[in-house]
Amino acid sequence: MGYKKKTIILGIVALALACLYIFYDLRGNIGYILPKRAIKLIAIIITGGAIAFSTTIFMTITNNRILTPSVLGLDSLYLLLQTVIIFIFGSNSIVMMESSINYLISIVLMVLFSLLLYQFLFKGEKNNIYFLLLIGMILGTFFNSFTDFMQVLIDPNEFMVAQDAMFASINNVHTDLVWLSVVLIGLVLIYFSRFYKYLDVLSLGKDQAVNLGVPYDYVVKRLLIVVAILISVATALTGPITFLGLLVVNVTYEMMKTFRHLYILLGSIFLSIIALVGGQFIVEKIFTFNTTLSVIINFVGGVYFIYLLLKENRSW
Amino acid sequence: MVDLKNVFKAYNNKPVIEDVSLTIDKGTITSFIGPNGAGKSTLISMISRLIAKDNGDITIDGKDIFQAKNNDLAKKISILKQSNAINLKLTVRELVSFGRFPYSQGKLTKEDWGKVDEAIEYMELQDMQDKFLEELSGGQRQRAHIAMVIAQDTEYILLDEPLNNLDMRASTQIMKTLRKLVDEMSKTILIVIHDINFASCYSDNIVALKDGKVMKQGRACDVIDKCVLKDLYDMDIDIKEIDNRRICVYY
Question: Cross-referenced InterPro entries, in alphabetical order (chain A) (predicted)?
Fold first, then answer.
């Protein structure tokens, strides 16, 4: 079966799962339940799509299959920024009260920070994947610990607000941000379309990309901004889902056996939606909320991650 | 014509290329030889703008390469680095088609595919054009990469140790192709090479580098000389003339 066919099948499965999620056991006050489910579904789709999309691009830029924005701690960074904002402005400030302003400020900071991070980590003449991985792990832990530290320092009332801002999850989607996110993602995609043609060439590595006339630094920096915005959107809506990106993009590569980004991007987005919507459906209807989706994803992802690390020794 | 004037490059304040000035004529094969760490790869990477120079001027046909537009340059000069481990699921044909990117920006026209076919034929890869790169032997893979460079159809071709890890048959095959490219399609080829006998037999000019400086440059027969090579490698190298070719005996 070719990769085109596989992409279409994944798309159909994703669509079917989405319908199942919305229409399953639809009883009672339909006028209330239906919009509620729909908005949750949209949030899940945006999150899944954004994570898959950003991870694919990030892996292409950095030419590896292990480092994802989450492994580098970008989603932890988002949570840290939230805490810092509360720490500096207080929970009663306009920045905290108006969630969309907070959202936009966080995104701007995220973009700046990721560019800085990139400058430090990938600008060197040679970068060793294990070294980067180590740095990523340390940074992620650092961001988390620093977040905890600041939360200990702030006023307990403020802490409550911080908790709410940070503990978004699939079961507790920040629905007020959904429409803003849709607009934002639309804009990012329009911006991204100019750079789409470079993705396949970038995956050949920096030297080949330069050789083939890609304005490398210019393109990579802008793609990184796209990644930072998408990660912010996903994290703001549903909180960090660490291993999802790593998992779906790698599975997509294994499945598709092609380098063409059109199919890798579409495939990983569909797969991501399948994992999130399907997983959420199971959590809600079978486990009746006794477990959370991130537990399942992190467990499966963790096992797969170790497998990848061991396999990295050999060639792909 | 490739022109280097007082080119300088340092890593961590340690100079690797010092004050190199060179002129490379069109329609020749120029080999860069010298001991490890002489700065050959660095120099060739700078000529192909893969790494930045610290000082000096590098011009191709009178145009500064760091000022030129990326895409225009990609139609003029191409480089193949020694480590081109690509970890993608890529067939030979797909790899070669990447060579057309500067012209088509990823949307290959009929004409582009024609060039791809020509390049594959030129490197005699027709039988394996739909195989994945990982299934090929080292020599075949190197030929696939050279086919991509041919498809890129640039006047100048830079190769960084193209014979690395190849057996004699694959090596001669590649050197003969390069010679053909120069003689038949009047390309200009710059190549970093360790085997001085290959350099002696196949190149027009040789540049001998040591400690970041040009020790000697000139026609192949002038550089393949007992005194020059002794200074260059710090060892006695006997040179025998066999069938009008200068062969170094250093074993």
Answer: ABC_BtuC-like, ABC_transptr_permease_BtuC
Rounded Cα distance between B169 and B174, Å, is: 9
Contact map slice: B 34-53 vs A, CB within 8 A:
48-51
DSSP states along A234-257: HHHHH---TTHHHHHHHHHHHHH-
Are B17 and B128 in the same domain? no
Interfacial B residues in 90-119 facing A (CB < 8 Å)? 90, 94, 98-99, 101-102, 105-107
CATH superfamily of the domain spanning A3-311: ABC transporter involved in vitamin B12 uptake, BtuC (1.10.3470.10)
> Does residue B172 sit in the same domain as residue B213?
yes
DSSP state of B133: G
Q: Residue B24: which CATH number?
A: 3.40.50.300
Q: How many domains does chain B have?
A: 2
* Residue A187: band (very low, low, confident or very high) from pLDDT cuts 50, 70, 90: very high
Q: What are the residues whose beta carbons fall under 8 Å from the beta carbon of B11, sequence distance 6 or more?
A: A125
pLDDT tens per residue across span A114-161: 788 777 766 665 566 677 778 778 888 898 898 888 888 887 877 777
In this model, does residue A316 exceed pLDDT 60? no
pTM over 0.90: no
